[in-house]
Amino acid sequence: MSNSGHDIPTIGITMGDPAGIGPEVVARSLARLQKYNARFVVYGSNELLTIAADLCNETSLRWHRVDANSERANAPIHQQITVFDDGEELHSLRGEPSEIGGHVSKQWVEQAIADSLKPTNDPRRIDGVVTAPICKASWALAGYRWAGHTELFATRTKAKRHAMAFISPTLRVVLATCHIPLMHIRNVLTIGRVFDAIDLANDACLDLGIDRPRIAVTGLNPHAGENGLLGDEETRLIEPAIKIAHEAGIRVNGPFPADTLFNDAVNGSYDIVVAMYHDQGLLPVKLLHQHQAVNWTLGLPIIRTSPDHGTAFNIVGKNQANIGSMQAAIKLALDLAKTREPRPC
Predict the structure, then answer these.
(1) Sheet holding 272-275, edge to edge
(2) CB 9 within 8 A of CB 38
(3) Which of 85, 107, 164, 302 has its Cα between 20 and 30 A from that of 156?
(4) pLDDT-derived band at 40, boundaries 50, 70, 90
(5) CA gap 77, 75 in Å, rounded
(6) Is 327 helix (H, G, I), strand (E, B) or coil?
């Protein structure tokens, strides 16, 4: 039973930038997930989904189109795959940022967030959101100043704290900071940010069925600061956060040099790693599991996952996109919808 009161989980999927590979990875993933006992609501373009399905020869894929602006969009969802289509003509977009691409991709995400926050008895309520890749340049051209999906979801759901997590077959990583220029990290990293990442990492492991999570924390500086010789952030910020986490009953150790810690985590010494910044945590994940990793936004009252890749404008229309990460993102959202305790909105 899903948290929304539906008989089976209902997952919303946003199509991403219409000029990117979003329509293709959505179409191909859904064709392979039709065997699942779940419903899927696609926020996007019926036209682009049709083109993508034809391009990829997904002849088995069937869906029900609903005008997103009609009264039918408020009726109970019975079909396994439903596309909420706003009627925009987008077939001419190909392989580059655009104002219209930014506008429609942003609106699709806004609609999915709004539906995920509806009361449990509302027929439009969905149990989780999976977002195909957007293009930040397209959002900027449309006048939207967001660093990315993560910040938009956190703001719209009024999350008091949030963090980016990356889940892959052999490595799980949570980031203490997200989309921040490298030169600015030392100005925004605080004891509270590090503790929140540790605490959210612990909650994430519990949601994944890991009863007593083992958490490791990286340092910020080379060699974890070398006892202050290469920087004091470890002793001034990271160690106090770990101490607070210990006092809260969390099993956490560190800070450790990042260049050795990830090997220990992959080899099974830890269940999850808290990294200090984006590339520190993402390099090992993408090196090991480029097409299997999932981005999961922690700290939200709703479920939100996404594939761990971008719009790939250079391969649009070539039927070359790898759908592994998108499939993994949908499956994780489904698993969480079935097992995660509801959060207050």
Answers:
(1) 64-67, 81-85, 39-44, 10-14, 128-131, 304-307, 294-298, 163-167, 172-175, 272-275, 215-218, 252-256
(2) yes
(3) 85
(4) very high
(5) 6
(6) helix
Segment 19-30 shows an average pLDDT of: 96
The predicted-structure confidence for 49-107, as pLDDT tens digits, reads as follows 999 999 999 999 999 999 988 888 888 888 899 999 987 888 777 789 999 999 999 99
pTM: 0.93
Instruction: pLDDT band for 184, please (50, 70, 90 cuts).
Output: very high
pLDDT tens per residue across span 105-146: 999 999 999 999 999 889 999 999 999 999 999 999 999 999
Sign of torsion over alpha carbons 316, 317, 320, 323: positive
Residue 5 reports pLDDT greater than 70: no
Delimit the domains of the chain by residue range.
Answer: 10-159+300-339, 165-283
Which of 237, 238, 184, 232 has the alpha carbon at shortest distance from 215? 238
Domains 10-159+300-339 and 165-283 share a fold: yes
Six-digit token string for 147: 């660093």
pLDDT, residue 6, reads: 60
3-state secondary structure of 128: strand
Fold for the domain defined by 10-159+300-339 = Isopropylmalate Dehydrogenase (3.40.718)
| pLDDT score, position 225 | 78
**Directed axis angle between helix 278-289 and helix 258-266, to 10°?**
40
Give which of 256, 216, 255, 215 is closest to 239, Cα–Cα: 255
On the 0-12 / 13-18 / 19+ scale of CB atoms within 10 A, 305 is buried
64: exposed, middle or buried (Cβ count in 10 Å: 0-12, 13-18, 19+): middle
Asked whether 23 and 49 are in contact (CB, 8 A), the reply is yes
- Give the homologous superfamily in CATH for domain 165-283: Isopropylmalate Dehydrogenase (3.40.718.10)
Instruction: Could you list the beta-strand ranges (E) of 197-271.
Output: 215-218, 252-256
Contact 76, 123 (CB under 8 A): yes
Neighbours of 122 (CB within 10 A): 14
